[in-house]
Design a protein that fits this description.
This protein is globular. Strand 6 and strand 7 form a beta hairpin. The protein is built from 16 helices and ten strands. The strands form three sheets. The protein has a five-stranded mixed β-sheet with strand order 1-2-8-5-3, sandwiched between helices. It is of the alpha+beta class. The protein has a single domain, classed as Orthogonal Bundle (Cytochrome p450). The protein binds protoporphyrin IX containing FE. The site of protoporphyrin IX containing FE has 24 residues, from helix 12 and helix 16.
Length: 391
């Protein structure tokens, strides 16, 4: 029996991979005394994510909550999930997202200009954090002066993510939730009066077209888009630089041939997955490798462990920007497959086309462990000070 590690400990967050190796050998780990089960293998993870009828995304609210709201898309099953997803999926198709490329490039150039001038920056503060916030804010139709608020709200919501799984996370503070609610109430009122060409107006429209989307649903959708899209993409952009710094030979290949950037980003998604795990609830007793996971026991699906499963990925510990095929699970699979995947891929590609096109000689300017995003669900650093030379 492996002693379950403290999954929010900084050392674990720095290097969770030995735990995944151990776990894979024993998968599934069923720990009723800790109130959870865990799976680590690629085949198990894919089977679970594809079978939403057996493996629900919906968790019963705690008994003290008397009038629970309907769950958000990410935490709902069909038919509710299907209905909610159809309302927003139009805005995030690869075709829709492609149209954003010139604007994303413009924002990226503006953000990078002072860093290129200085020859150094904290990559998180300079680019990886602001880029996705500005882009999603523009898609939704949120004015620039309110962006700083989003960072606060997004951080708050991410900090609350670990709670359900016994992490050090906590509930969203009531006053912050109230602030978000008031803000979005005002935004949607404005759009109801004067619709614009933005996603909030589209969602308000859907709400007006009958019973399809309640105000509570709309609010949850906005929060979900902010939370799901910001921190994850920030981590993808900074994890890409970290992976390059650790593997200079791979960076040199990509810098020499920018057409390799998309492949490199897929490899970062596999090797340093921004979202390490998700969770499902078995709706009945389920047998996995001869062991029974009892009905309703929350089951952690370690996407990051599946992404290093040698049965699926030859030499899984090798960071290989030319890996093909690379069917990683970093964006999930099945009906909840990441809605924002085309957008996240585009932002990361443009970020590195610009960065590698303008600079070379990247190196870290600090030593030792970098401060990490404090939840095991995410993999990312809070700061990444680097230096470089202009090309
Ligand atoms: C690198 C960046 C990103 C990563 C690694 C990521 C990862 C994921 C994963 C693993 C899931 C599935 C969770 C599950 O099955 O339980 C998911 C779902 C989702 N993601 Fe992302 N995501 C990223 C960026 C984004 C962006 C930019 C947006 C929006 C603009 C977004 C919106 C969503 C939404 C709305 C869902 C729920 C979909 C559903 O329930 O049908 N994500 N994401």
């Amino acid at each position: 029996m492996v002693a379950a590690p403290n999954i929010n400990d900084p050392a674990f967050l720095e290097n969770p991979f030995p735990f995944y190796e151990l776990g894979r050998a024993m998968s599934p780990l069923i720990l009723p005394e800790r109130g959870l089960a865990m799976v680590f293998g690629y085949d198990d993870a894919t089977a679970i994510l594809k079978d939403w009828e057996t493996w629900s995304s919906r968790f019963p609210p705690p008994p003290e909550v008397t009038d629970p709201p309907e769950p958000m898309m990410l935490s709902s099953d069909p038919p509710r999930h299907t209905r909610l997803r159809s309302l927003v999926s139009q805005a995030f198709t690869p075709r829709m997202v492609e149209q954003l490329e010139p604007r994303i490039r413009e924002i990226t150039r503006e953000l990078l200009a002072p860093a290129l001038e200085a020859g150094e920056c904290d990559l998180v503060a300079a680019l990886a954090y602001p880029l996705p916030v500005i882009v999603i804010a523009e898609i939704l139709g949120i004015p620039p002066e309110d962006r700083a608020k989003f960072k606060e709200w997004s951080d708050e919501a991410v900090a609350s993510l670990g709670t359900a799984l016994g992490g050090s996370g906590r509930q969203i503070r009531a006053e912050v939730f109230e602030e978000m609610r008031e803000y979005f109430t005002r935004m949607t009122e404005e759009r109801r009066q004067r619709p614009r060409n933005d996603l909030i107006s589209g969602l308000v429209q859907a709400e007006q077209d009958g019973e399809r989307l309640t105000f509570a649903d709309l609010l949850q959708m906005l929060v979900l888009l902010l939370v799901a899209g910001n921190e994850t993409t920030t981590n993808l952009i900074s994890n890409t630089m970290l992976s390059f710094l650790e593997h200079p030979g791979e960076l040199a290949k990509v810098a020499a041939e920018p057409a390799r950037i998309p492949g490199a980003i897929e490899e970062v998604l596999r090797y340093n997955s921004p979202v390490q795990a998700t969770v499902r609830r078995p709706t009945r007793d389920v047998e996995v490798h001869g062991k029974t996971i009892p009905a309703n026991l929350p089951t952690v699906v370690w996407l990051a462990a599946a992404n290093r499963d040698p049965a699926q990925f030859p030499e899984p510990l090798r960071f290989d920007v030319e890996r093909s095929p690379n069917r990683h699970l970093a964006f999930g699979l099945g009906i909840h497959f990441c809605l924002g995947a085309p957008l996240a891929r585009l932002e990361a590609r443009v970020a590195y086309e610009e960065l590698l096109g303008a600079a070379t000689g990247f190196e870290r300017t600090t030593e030792g462990m970098l401060p990490r995003v404090p939840t095991f669900i995410m993999r990312g650093v809070l700061e990444l000070p680097i230096a470089f030379r202009r090309r």
